[in-house]
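Hi V.,

You were right to ask for the full record rather than a summary. Here it is.
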Amino acid sequence: MADGKYRVFLSSVQKELEAERVAVAGGVSSDAILGRYNEIVLFDKEPLSGRKVAKPYLDCLNSCDIYILILDREYCHVKDALSATHEDYRHAQRRNMPVMVLVRGQHDSEREQKTQGFFSEIKEDGHTYRRFHDRVDLLPEIKHGLTRILRETYGLDIGEEVRSDTGEVAKASAFELQLLDVPGSNLALDVAKEWLRVIGVLSGEKRITNSALLNALRERGLVRKNAQGDGYQAMASGLLFLGKNPSQYFSQCRILADAYEGVEPDPNPKDQDTISGPASRMVECVVDFAMKNTRHPIRIVGINSVKMDEYPREVIREAIVNAIAHRDYEDAARPIYVKVFYDRVEILSPGNLMRPLTIAKLRRGNYEPSSRNPTLAQYLSQMNLMEQRGSGIRRMYAAMADHGLGVPGYSFRDGYFEVVLRGPGDDVDRLKTPAKASASPSVEARLTKRQRQMAELLASSKRPSPAAVARNGSGSPGSLRRLISRFLWDWE
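Predicted structure:
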């Protein structure tokens, strides 16, 4: 037991059950009562110890109090005749740890042969196991099992606390767990393929039928089979992550973007957009909108002409990803707003921070990450759009400082959590050029004095004088430009 919490080791074949692992971790940590007494341990997400250990997963298990095993079809990688999952199960048995076993699906004959043998061993050991279909079934079973273990093994009857909970810790939203009357055809399957390639389910140009693709989404909790069994219906998480137009079903699932000439809203914005679609595409649409409606001053760095961005792209991206991932989707009255002004960019996301996270903790950088929509956050993380370890705010601070700007501002007003990025205003010279903006030293070192002068003139877009062109031996500024470009290309 560490920091007043029982450490719960969650074991499974990692890739096969990644979505379930994350859902369990998010569901327990955000539960007002269970999160107070339990900490879900995912070995692959634990910090490195720095020590050389032959089987680090067993070393991690030794620090835990409760063992949960989730089985499906695969046995996974075998080491020393046993998979890591099978080995940590036996280790938990030797330690006499409280054990909870959950099995996905009813068709045991379809499991790998070694998995069937593992399953038989569990039954012979006398463990009572529960079956589940997807995360909608899994989370209640986990919570019920942990409550029973706390009562029967550790003497903690938390039933009374559940009834008198004061709500000090906010719960994850149930919105994304809804089964919708939305056919699977309303999902952007091209984005789904891209995501499945990112997470390693598809490789290269491997073809996949729409039926197989939808089944892969079902296994990850984004769709479910309809009652007739001849089609698929989207879960709300699937619609948020992959929906072609989620606002067709939930009007709040859109982003309203406005750009203004001045520093205050006015009735005639210079640009507007209404954005709805798969989450990853909405992110890029917002970044493009912000880049289109902000300034891009030219800076001369040595022999290079550098086009600057008024705001770091990665900060705009991080802010909008956070808004999409953590907003309150149960608030049907409010979309996300993005407002671009002459001196700032505002991103307004419906709902306050998840308790016990506060704005003061954000500013200090002293906080633990939590998500109102853990499934959506997990999949955005897999698309490399966000980090789930709570480092995003710190990276935003660093990127703004490296760009010559102040830290982001945070506030809560009128039902929105607001992020404000302050720009350079009239002082665009304060923007710092990227470290990689100049040519490499090896290239600059090989330029003659005349070549350097010509390159600097070209970088500044000034027309070289006829005398300068003649000294270089070229017939025209255009041929001189080609000469310099060819020189730099050869040395790079």
